[in-house]
Amino acid sequence: MKILYFTSTGNNLYISRRLGGELLSIPQLMKNRDFNIFDDVVGIVFPVYYATSPKMIREFLKEVNITTDYLFLICSYGSDGDQNALKIMAKTLKKKGINVNYTNSVLMVDNYLPIFDMVQEKNIKDDFEIDAQIDIIKNDIESRKEYRLFKKSFTDIPHIEKVLEKIMTKRYHIIVGEGCINCGICVKVCPRANIILTEEKPVLADNCEFCLGCAHHCKNKVFTINNEPNDERYINSHVKVSEIIISNNVGD
Ligand SMILES: Cc1cc2nc3c(=O)[nH]c(=O)nc-3n(C[C@H](O)[C@H](O)[C@H](O)COP(=O)(O)O)c2cc1C
Ligand code: SF4
Ligand code: SF4
């Protein structure tokens, strides 16, 4: 089994690890232009961004060829839009002649700093339920269950993902403040190689995914988001920042 995953704060790496198999990071596959995936079972594990998948995954799906007997899609999400994201991805793959056998989603901490308070999120979504959700999915995959839900939700407005992405990216932006100690972590966790480190502070280029990895993983809280509720940050408690770096460091 091969699992293709994308993560910023570790939730999807945690899910992928618990499901087992060979883990392949999508930013690394993109960097190496490695687009031919073969295995008896293949999964794509990703976070929901604006009721769809992150831009990088949509770019990856345009290029990828997947040959498998059983393909599953799992997304992690914090509030809503999971079924919309799965539906869009299954449709995209179908257009390429790739059949999806199973989709499901895992409710986890919502790492979207402009709206969600990380203190509350960490308190509300405890590990027990998350592990239980993943165990059900693991059993389903092991028994090669055929399942696609796409249940109704408020994000069923046509093209909601386009509307959300447009409004939110216009409304919220990353502010680079003071206090940088030049540790280089933000550069290494960025899946887009979008950060350049100068002597005083990091500079963001114009290829941002808004994954917020730089903000969550900078210990000195140099990155803030306009109007965010507070400066609490998040990393999945089972994942180390060194593992996020292995997944996302696409620099030279
Ligand atoms: C830019 C952005 C947009 C997001 N949009 C949604 C959304 O529409 N619906 C939702 O439920 N969660 C949304 N989230 C939350 C993430 O999907 C969720 O926290 C996910 O588990 C993060 O996975 P990771 O830890 O592997 O990066 C968003 C997060 C980011 C950074
Ligand atoms: S992670 Fe923070 S302290 Fe480290 S280089 Fe980046 S901005 Fe500076
Ligand atoms: S600059 Fe920050 S938010 Fe943008 S892609 Fe890189 S890590 Fe993510």
TrEMBL record:
<feature type="domain" description="4Fe-4S ferredoxin-type">
    <location>
        <begin position="170"/>
        <end position="200"/>
    </location>
</feature>
<dbReference type="GO" id="GO:0016491">
    <property type="term" value="F:oxidoreductase activity"/>
</dbReference>
<dbReference type="InterPro" id="IPR017900">
    <property type="entry name" value="4Fe4S_Fe_S_CS"/>
</dbReference>
<protein>
    <submittedName>
        <fullName>4Fe-4S ferredoxin iron-sulfur binding domain-containing protein</fullName>
    </submittedName>
</protein>
<dbReference type="InterPro" id="IPR047964">
    <property type="entry name" value="EFR1-like"/>
</dbReference>
<dbReference type="InterPro" id="IPR017896">
    <property type="entry name" value="4Fe4S_Fe-S-bd"/>
</dbReference>
<dbReference type="InterPro" id="IPR029039">
    <property type="entry name" value="Flavoprotein-like_sf"/>
</dbReference>
